[in-house]
Write a structure and sequence with these properties.
By secondary structure, this protein is α+β, with helices and mostly antiparallel strands. The chain is 28% helix and 51% strand. The protein has one domain: Bactericidal permeability-increasing protein, domain 1. Strands 1, 4, 5, 6, 7, 8, 9 and 10 form an 8-stranded antiparallel sheet that branches. Strand 6 and strand 7 form a beta hairpin. The relative contact order is 0.11.
Length: 246
Amino acid sequence: MPRFTASLLMVLLAACPVLAQADPLVQMGKVLQPMLADAMPKILYEKTQNWDHQAMVPVGLRWHGLKSYVVKSPRNHGEWHRLSVTSQDLRRTLDLQIYDVKNLSAEKQTFKVYLTFQMGAEYEQQNWANGLRLWSGSVRARVQVKAYLQCEDTLRFDTSKGPLPDFVFRMRVTGAKVDYDKLVVEHITGLGGDAAKLIGQAAHKAMNQWRPSIERNLLAKAGDAIVRAADTREIRVGFGSLLPSK
């Protein structure tokens, strides 16, 4: 097993000796899984468009002597959109698997990660005109997200700054493919339960038949976003400070 992976595994297993008889990579995944579940934020993505927008609209007349003028006041107006994406029940739905570890050099190794968890999405739209709500609707769904990640890490020793080395570590995602299954539409305005599920399934099937590129493009963009976001800076751990100063 590559040096860094073995070292990390030894540290993790110190807290979980019951996993000592399992496959090393399975051990690492099992130890990291609850840590990742606790560290992952509840809200993964939020976006609003025009939400809470107001416009100055006429609400009455006022007279000043014989002259009148229109009184305006802010009122809700326009199309409001809101989208929220959340992680759901990670302790139960999250699974992490590490595999295919390859040692490229003394400092660099690559490995693959399979990550899956349940994700929820809720979309709401409200249409307003001069303070009157003309229409309101929402859709709520859940899905099991699956991410296949190609990762790379480097660990090097920098001895240029003193007699004790600095450990310099970097890990990044070099490729990502996102997929999903178990799509369930839980709620559509005015509907719920089995009716919402049936309509959701029909809409998803129609989208795949008529415009399959929409789904492919969204999944590809999700993979690209993971690669951009999961590139860490170098983490430097220095030991020079442990020496007594003169």
